[in-house]
Automatic annotation (TrEMBL):
Gene: GNG11
Domain of life: Eukaryota
Coiled coil segments of this chain: 12-46
Name of protein: Guanine nucleotide-binding protein subunit gamma
Main location (coarse class): membrane
Subcellular location: Cell membrane
Matching CDD domains: GGL
Job description of the protein: Guanine nucleotide-binding proteins (G proteins) are involved as a modulator or transducer in various transmembrane signaling systems. The beta and gamma chains are required for the GTPase activity, for replacement of GDP by GTP, and for G protein-effector interaction.
Length: 73
């Protein structure tokens, strides 16, 4: 099946697609950014203790730790 390129469609088809998309978007439940951002902040703060990017990986559990060292003499 060939890829569909919007720029290749006639203007009428483009407008139909746009109206379809707008109908989908108007049905979405919207929330205030201030409320959502507070929820996201709380979610992140609650889980930050478990986050290896924040907390770090213990040396004994780090799969990328070098097993040995290289000595050049």
């Amino acid at each position: 099946m060939p890829a569909l390129h919007v720029e290749d469609l006639p203007e009428k088809e483009k407008l139909k697609m746009e109206v379809e998309q707008l109908r989908k978007e108007v049905k979405l439940q919207r929330q205030q950014v201030s409320k959502c951002s507070e929820e996201i902040k709380n979610y992140i703060e609650e889980r930050s203790g478990e986050d290896p990017l924040v907390k770090g990986i213990p040396e004994d559990k780090n799969p990328f730790k070098e097993k040995g060292s290289c000595i050049i003499s």
